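[Automated response] Your request has been received and processed.

Submitted sequence:
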Amino acid sequence: MAGAYPGWVPGAPGRVLVVDDSQVIRQLIKVNLELDGFEVMTASDGAECLEAVHHFRPDVITLDVAMPRLDGLRTVGRLRVDPRTADIPLVLVSASAADGPPGGVDAVLAKPFEPAELVGLVRRLCAEGRQRVVRLAKSPATCRCSSRTLAP
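Generated structure:
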């Protein structure tokens, strides 16, 4: 399964890219996720997120809405149109959170939040993402079989 899910280490909860313009919030989220075993990278706005996402290859991205240069919602739009990032679960962590997630967002967590709630949500989204990848890898419709073999 590790080969089907780049960056995944068996037994590790996953990788999270935390995007927020507040250094205090970034550090709060980072510390809580790291205490639960996640590997965490941070970015201060959507532009930094788009630069980092292809190198870090996160399992989940948390995003603030109001950020300089490129806000959270515009970042969501750019992540969703890129085939390499379209399936990464996205969580809006925002003081301006709406009733439900806007299009392209998997979950919304209102600030202030309970750290345990954030960690549980990220853990669930990582697990669901892995299950989706495993199901796709095992699906006969996505399997391209050939009668010939290729030498390594």
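Summary generated for your ticket: The chain has one domain: 12-139. The longest strand covers residues 15-19.
If you did not submit this request, please reply to this message.
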